Amino acid sequence: MNQIQLKNIYYSIDKKTILENISLTVSTNECLAVTGKNGSGKSTLLRLLAGFLPPAKGEIHRNAQTIGYVPERPPEVLRFTPEEYLKHMGQIAGIDSARLHAHIKQLFSQMGLDKYQAVPLKNLSKGNKQKVNIIQALLNDPEILLMDEPLSGLDADSQKDLEELLKALKNTGITIIFTAHEPGLPEQLADRIIHVHQRKIRESGKSADQTNYRVIEFFVPATASVSVIDAFLQNSTNISEYICHATSLYEVRVISSSCDEMIGQILELGGSLQYVSRPQASTAVLKRYEKTGCRFSAK
């Protein structure tokens, strides 16, 4: 059964087209990752799915009765404790007081936040604030959980903790749609990955198919041309997708058989390798890359 279906969606801001002719179907119990560089329209797509934004054109059909939404940034300046904040959010959602109290207690326990119930939100770590952010989205037992950059700004330990939490949520059967730019999370968690690029989306396949691809991360120093790199990546037929995480840090998913060739082309254009997953190049070639300080992974 389809939980959400988008048909030929357009969305614009101040006459600037953000998303163009988007069609997408998300099934019950599916976990969908939405990738793309900053400003590509990932968050806008998520808000359209949530019903927070009306499309300029097109149709959105939702079969779910309840949808939970986790914004990218949890509340920072509220004077509430987590328990106070969640009670307010539950009351706004019209949840029965007895049910709300029991559910908050259960979710605090599941997420290891029991001892932080009475601590002001502003004093919590980023990881624990994000857990509270997720709890508020789960208060009404949503059929669909939408999360905007759930790991953004977290340290490595907090990211790992939340990755395990998201895996556990996925196993409950809830439909999950999340945006991400962290390397690895979409492949580990998602059943399907879509990439937002130049106002449109394209399928990047299922996680089970990712063994056919390699991930390359590289940095473009000031001496190289970012515009030349962008043009090369856009026109390459061997690239499944690429993401610009920052002004000059790129992540590229490339067909396995073309990995070595792609690395060579990146180096020729002035790119500085940071990471390569499951490299298939010869030992001599790998040693040459290792001299640049590049990291390798067998995963």
Shape: globular
Structural class: alpha/beta
**Any idea of the CATH class of the largest domain?**
Alpha Beta
Largest sheet: 6 strands, mixed
Number of strands: 14
Domain ABC transporter: 4-223
Organism: Evansella caseinilytica
GO molecular function: ATP binding; ATP hydrolysis activity
InterPro entries: AAA+_ATPase (IPR003593), ABC_transporter-like_ATP-bd (IPR003439), ABC_transporter-like_CS (IPR017871), ABC_Transporter_VariousFunc (IPR051782), P-loop_NTPase (IPR027417)
List keywords for this structure.
3 domains, alpha/beta, ABC-type multidrug transport system, ATPase component, 9 helices, single chain, Rossmann fold, six-stranded mixed β-sheet
Notes on the structure:
With 299 residues, this protein is an alpha/beta fold. It folds into 3 domains: 1-65 and 143-205, P-loop containing nucleotide triphosphate hydrolases (Rossmann fold), CATH 3.40.50.300; 76-138, no CATH class; 208-297, Alpha-Beta Plaits (2-Layer Sandwich). Helix content is 32%, strand content 30%. It is built from 9 helices and 14 strands. The strands form 3 sheets. It has a 6-stranded mixed beta sheet with strand order 5-6-7-3-8-9, with helices on both faces. Helix 2 (82-92) packs across helix 3 (97-110), helix 2 packs parallel to helix 4 and helix 4 runs parallel beside helix 5 (156-170). The model is unreliable at 207-211 (pLDDT under 50).
Structure described in brief:
The chain is 32% helix and 30% strand. With 299 residues, it is α/β, with parallel strands linked by helices.
